[in-house]
Amino acid sequence: MTEPTTLIPLSQARAGQRVRIHSLPQQPECRSRLAAMGIQISSELEVLRLGAPGGLLHLANGFLEFMLRRDVAHHMTVELLANASP
What we know:
Blueprint: E1 7-9, E2 17-21, H1 28-36, E3 44-50, E4 56-61, E5 64-69, H2 70-73, E6 77-83
Antiparallel strand pairs: 1-6, 2-3, 2-6, 3-4, 4-5
């Protein structure tokens, strides 16, 4: 039997964690910008760094690195996968 998936807002992920996207923000501008970078539901991201409290998240999807505002990240739900490094 598999354990239920725990979903959290992307804004709560910590540096070094890998996540899988389960939902995107509802704002069309945000969705289209993310889609232009290849970010979609089921994409896996690595949280590289966190800015000052309330600041930006530095994320990676393969070779693509990008910054995302925490208020946008708060509207994305993700599943924690594993830490990027042991």
